[in-house]
Amino acid sequence: MEARLSGLRDLYEDFVRTFGNVLFAVCLFLVWGVLTLLGVVVEQGLEPSAYFDAYAAPVARAIVRLGFDNIYHSYWYVGIIGLILLSLTVCTFKRVIPARLPPLRPVRIDKIPLNASIAIPGTVADVRAKVDAFFRKRGWQVRERTFDGAEWIFADRFNWARRGVLIAHLGFVIIAAGATIYWARGFAGEAAIVTGQTFEIPRTHALVRLDGFGYKIQPIATKSGMVYQPIDYVSHVTVTGNDGVAKHETIRVNQPIDIDGTLYYQASYGFAMRFDVTHDGARVGSLSDRTLMEGEALEIPGTQKSVQYARFVPTVDRVTGQPGPDPRVNDPAVVLNVFNGDAQVGAALVPLQTWIDLGGGWRIVPHTYLMYTGLQYRYDPGATLVGVGAFVLLAGLVIAFYFLPARLYVRVDEGADGTATVGVAATTVKGYDIYEKQFGELTKALEGNAWTSS
Amino acid sequence: MDIVLMKLALAAYAIAALALLAYFFTRQPALRAFGAPLAVLGCAAQFAQLIARFEITGIWPLLNLYGSLSLFAAVAVLIFIIFAIRYDLWFAGGFVIAIAALFLAYATTWNEGTMPAVPSLQSYWAKIHVPLVVSSYGAFLVSFVLAGLYLVRYYVERSLAKTAALATAGGHASVAATGGWLASFPSLPQLDVLTYRAVAVGLPLLTLGIITGAMWAHEAWGAYWQWDPKETAAMSSWIAYAIYMHLHTRNAWRGMASAWICFASFFVVLFTYLGVNIFIHAGLHAYQR
Predict the structure, then answer these.
(1) B232 to chain A, minimum CA–CA distance in Å?
(2) Domain residue spans in chain B?
(3) Above 0.95 for ipTM, yes or no?
């Protein structure tokens, strides 16, 4: 039993030693940074085949098998963040708190790089009083202690700022808590709604009906040619929330609406299509009444064939007959892909109201386009906490970077010829070099002030 | 008007960079006296150019790479001028201003004329987030130059010390322990502290920039964090400088090692700032191209 406890204690100490080590934390940061950059370089969320098209096979295989195609949601990426939070917690309790709030204790003044020895006329008691007053007058927090009969003066400045790193770490923990709340209780989704259609949000059962969608695109002549600059996307919707009252709302980019705590955003737009499908000249109602979004397909009954509505082309260039750059609807057409089974057997740019013959008496006519809006919705009960954490982190950084806590160790001893010798040493949380100039000025002022006032 | 101011800024920077580079090597006070006011003039002309562009077009001028690179150069030079005045750093000015001038010259290649903002950029956050992030990059440029100078001094000193040791061992005439121009540099600890101070300007600005970006994203895209390449790369920059700051707390790592990390971190910033936009076309920030 004793041996087992001792083993556990050793394990705990090893754990604390490792996770409380700044270099270990830095290594975790480094791995986190490299993985994060990797996710920037490797496009995320594609189909495996896209990686094999873009990279050499061994690289693509590594990307897909190691999860680099969805790196930020891989268990090991989340694991690294977890390890960082663990290291941060251990560092906070084992390193930051004890080191930032050091006890008052005597030191070897001459062993501290920032030290000075000043001879001041007067008795030890007088000089100690003068030194005490000198530091208090300049805003230092002065405390006197006796150790083994020797009296020490400890002067601290910006002592409160020693908690800067602690506050920054706390900010991280709050951010993590906010993100966890979203994972636990939040939800998000996206809906493509055609004009006139109503969509029900699964969790809240709120109803969103698209009354109309509009966009504004401005052609601008630039030095590199004509650019069609989007100016506005706007969805006019009717929303029915928990109260059962239908409200007319307008959603724009950067102007979401809030219904019962869930935010609705303008995310995208597109063109849905209706096709007239005929067989031997007769309209096939079951196919013709469908509204297709880009990417959706019609299966032709009794055949292996299917026709995919690949994309909408708002303007066909009248000279080339190819898709033009103007995104406004002028001479619209659709790109249709024809499949036989899984094999694509053809593709065509088909202007609206014209037809293509699929064989076997089947014809398809792109008939009417309908605009749809892409709305994003999100309920994030942790967002406020994340915001608070971010500002706590920032406050911690500002405190840690812009306030330099310094401690002076002062000892007054009997000197020669009626003087007292004031030994002063300084330490800071950021080393000695950063305080060298101020320390020089301080000791100079102490020397001048003490002489003047004597 | 704004084009004239831009050309004035470029010319002033080019001459100031040359004068201050010459000052770096010769330490002739006249060169400093000539270069420093030109740097101030160039910086003022740049800010005037950005204001003039806003006044003329009525469009916030930082919404494309032309405007943001212009602000980046202006802020880098401004932060450098503040550092130079406070810490007598003019000797490093040639490098900072030369790099700023190069970025500014590159910025002019992205000037497509007046274009209104796309819907996602039509937000008051554009006036907060972009200047904060770009300003942080400006501070990191200053820290990059200072870290570079630290490394130059460190390796030159080390090389001179080796040469001196060899000369002494061989019984030759003594070699000066420090180079003439090197002696007028700030000491290694001073350069280390200055580098730290520049990062201490940049990192909170970047933090605030990322926070405001997240707030904007929450308003515009529906989530404060979308793992978009640009925001993720910005987080990588933040991590790089966080590593620097953590290592700088350790006596054993303060100095040469932390200078290398600071120096290398700027390349992560460059990747974030330009690489993502130019080489990685996907993502929600792609409109900035």
Answers:
(1) 7
(2) 1-111, 125-289
(3) no
